[in-house]
């Protein structure tokens, strides 16, 4: 199974938290990453997005259908993310657009086997693969991409 974790692009500060929009820079970042992802994601990729405005604006330039999942809101648990993605049982790749600290915790849990607080940079994608279902030893990090590494 492929699990792709995408942290939202740069957002404005403020409250309420769920209504924080992307900055102008964040919109540019999201477009750049969406262009890269469009060339990388398989057609059948399932896309799950937090209900926060900044995640909805981050996914918008990708131009694919997605499902808003309330369990992916800020402060979600790693277990909630993995359950929403049906890890490791999904037959299709899953892209999750969410938040720090949760996405960093998911990456650490899958790659190290224990909960840790790893930082996932804004507008970064971490692509994690499990080759053999239910075999934790077959999990590997396929890619980490940040928008500043994408050449236009």
Major sheet strand order: 3-2-4-1-5-6
**Low-confidence runs (pLDDT<50, min 5 residues)?**
none
In helices, the fraction of residues equals 25-40%
Structural category is: alpha/beta
β-sheet strand percentage: 15-25%
Count of extended strands: 6
- Tally of helical runs: 4
Could you name the CATH class? Alpha Beta
In words, what does this structure look like?
There is one protein chain. The chain has helices spanning 24-40, 53-59, 78-85, 102-112, and strands spanning 2-7, 46-49, 67-68, 94-98, 124-130, 139-146. 36% of the residues are buried. The chain has a single domain (2-149), classed as 3-Layer(aba) Sandwich (Rossmann fold). Helices cover 28% and strands 21% of the residues. A 6-stranded mixed β-sheet has the order 3-2-4-1-5-6, with helices on both faces. β5 and β6 form a beta hairpin. The chain is built from 4 helices and 6 strands. The chain has 152 residues and is of the alpha/beta class. The chain is globular. The longest helix has 17 residues, at 24-40. α3 packs across α4.
Summarize the structure.
The chain is 28% helix and 21% strand. It starts with a strand and ends in a 6-residue tail after the last strand. It is α/β, with parallel strands linked by helices and 152 residues long.
Secondary-structure topology with pairs:
Blueprint: E1 2-7, H1 24-40, E2 46-49, H2 53-59, E3 67-68, H3 78-85, E4 94-98, H4 102-112, E5 124-130, E6 139-146
Parallel strand pairs: 1-4, 2-3, 2-4
Antiparallel strand pairs: 1-5, 5-6
Helix pairs in contact: 3-4
């Amino acid at each position: 199974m492929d699990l792709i974790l995408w942290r939202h692009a740069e957002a404005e500060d403020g409250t309420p938290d769920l209504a924080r929009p992307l900055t102008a820079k964040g919109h540019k970042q999201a477009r750049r990453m969406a262009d890269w992802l469009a060339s990388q994601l398989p057609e059948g990729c399932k896309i799950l997005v937090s209900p926060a405005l900044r995640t909805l604006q981050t996914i918008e330039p990708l131009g694919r259908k997605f499902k808003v999942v309330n369990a992916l809101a800020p402060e979600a648990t790693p277990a909630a993310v993995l359950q929403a993605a049906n890890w490791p049982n999904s037959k299709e790749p899953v892209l999750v657009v969410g938040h720090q600290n949760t996405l960093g915790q998911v990456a650490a849990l899958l790659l190290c086997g224990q909960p840790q607080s790893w930082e996932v940079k804004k507008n970064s994608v971490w692509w994690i693969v499990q080759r053999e279902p239910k075999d934790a030893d077959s999990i590997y990090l396929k890619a980490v991409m940040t928008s500043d590494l994408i050449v236009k």
